[in-house]
Amino acid sequence: NAVEPFPQNKTLNQNEELLRSILDNTMDGIGIIALDGTLLYTSLSMESILGYTREEALKMNMFTLLHPLEYLRAMGVLKRAADNPGTIQREEFRVKHKDSTWRQLEFVGKSEMIPGFNKRAIVLNYRDISEYKKAQQAAERLSLIVETSNDAIFTLSREGAILSWNPSAREIYG
Strands 162-165 and 154-156, how do they pair? Predict the structure, then answer.
């Protein structure tokens, strides 16, 4: 049962249909944003990530969704991308969801001349990392509690071997 390779002799229309199917069914967001913030293209996943339909998003300036405290940093990243075409940029920003909550998104993009639009724009992949960030912060808080506790805290393997301990356990048990 060998996997059949992708046929290279597809027509342009078949290739476009395949590409559209891939773009419309990805869980990550894919977008093309002009250097002025105008959204030129977005995948359907925009709605599951930020709550906006493709039609709503295409009427918006994406910079208006950035958290005000991150706007200047975002402009710096945009300038760096525009000044270095083809160089991949990776950043995280807080972005406003349609329900007015802030979501932490990870963006990966690069500046390119986009055929069909006849302008330089940023091709983006983005995903919501809000839950990951919350879990990371909770783990850091828990780690701080364990490390600063006056109680001896340690973890054991199933066999009873000590795997780790906090400073208080080291002080108490040596």
Answer: antiparallel
Bridge partners, 107 (sequence order): 91, 126
Average pLDDT, the chain: 89
* Contact between residue 54 and residue 42 where contact means Cβ atoms under 8 Å apart: yes
Note if the pTM is more than 0.85: no
Q: Is residue 113 scored above 60 in pLDDT? A: yes
Paired with 154 in beta bridges are 165
Give the max Cα distance, the chain: 74
Dihedral (CA of 161, 167, 172, 174) sign: positive
- How confident is the model at residue 170, as a pLDDT? 87
Among residues 130, 127, 128, 126, the alpha carbon closest in space to that of 32 is found at 126
The pLDDT-based confidence of 118 (bands split at 50, 70, 90) is: confident
Single-letter amino acid code for the residue at 155:
T
Res 133: pLDDT: 94
Q: Where would I find the beta strands (DSSP E) of the chain?
A: 29-34, 39-42, 89-96, 102-114, 119-128, 154-156, 162-165
Mean pLDDT, residues 85-107 taken together: 96
DSSP β-ladder status, 162-165 and 89-96: unpaired
CB 87 within 8 A of CB 79: no
